[in-house]
Amino acid sequence: MHPMLKPALRRAWRGRGTVQFGVTPAHAVKVGPMDIATGCFMELLDGTRGMSLLREEARTLDLNDHQVDTLVTRLTDAGLVDDVRAGGPEADALRSRSDILERQRPDLASLSVVHPEPGAGMRRLAARRSMRVQVRGAGRVGAAVAAVLSGSGVGRVEVLDGGCTELRDVSPGGLPATAVGERRDSAARQLVRRSAPGPAPRAPGAAGGAVVAEPGLSLIVVAPRDGFSGYVPDPGTADPWINSGTPHLYAGVIEATGFVGPLVLPGGTACAGCLDLNRRDRDPQWPRMLAQWQSGRRNAVQACDLGLATAVAGLAAAHALAFLDGELPASTGARAEAALPLLDWRSERIGAHLDCSCGAAGHTEGVRTSGAGTAHDTMAG
Predict the structure, then answer these.
(1) N or C, which terminus of the chain has less Cβ within 10 Å?
(2) All domains of the chain, ordered by start, with CATH?
């Protein structure tokens, strides 16, 4: 182990004998009691020394081996220590690509704060490179989501959409003005390539013209240009994803209202069918109105404010990445909405419906954990 105090967490002395790591309540930790020798020793935890060298140098500070091992263990248990060589073979391969890793240093720093165990941040960042995500929609929301996922290190990001890019599709974080007139799927592929921190790793066995099976989808992000079909998703469209067990996340903007969620875990959380059945239970007139909204062809320009679309895309991408990294974000079985002009985000749980064929009703959904709160304490010994 080559321990390093996580540099993303700012340090400050709260007074004599106590150090606080971190500013925000979600991740702040207080460490004490702390004397001058222990404080000086912490400066040695920069990832350049193994434990044997740390013990040797600590003796000049009148710290014995037991004190060193105890302090490093307690700092590690508090989530304050990273291991610069941990993470496994995939992490080692990513470290060898300094050009890619340097661009993703901020992402790695964030992951190291969120995931406390040593090497966990690097392991998750490396794991993203083998994942495959599909984004359905290349409008102001969908294209930006695809760009963020690609830029965050997801190895394969596919974008599905039809037609040609129009001026109304252009956005700073999505399709550029130069793409107007090009096929949307082609323009989105170019956007994904430009956004990536580097080329995706080649699959094992891909050399020499060998045929390699396409990896399964880790996630589908449903962000259609017409926000209505994301806000009121067709259960029939989602049936193949439910049957194959493919997680999918809805996001978009409709009538100056942004939404993210639900994230559907097939068989575990509410799906598009549950959403439809719940609406029918609450509003007997819903089927009548839905038939009218779905009939005919709508040519009206979507009320999709650029600032709101960008915020939705960023939030949706962040939820998608949290899921890909092994967490259950707040959109799991829930939907967050915010409408202009106040932009007050509100979240609503969506219950699995007993009459839905997805089978989620009666299942216990995954429990999310949160580190929000006040800074917690750990004793330095």
Answers:
(1) C
(2) 3-85 (3.90.930.60), 129-201+215-349 (3.40.50.720)
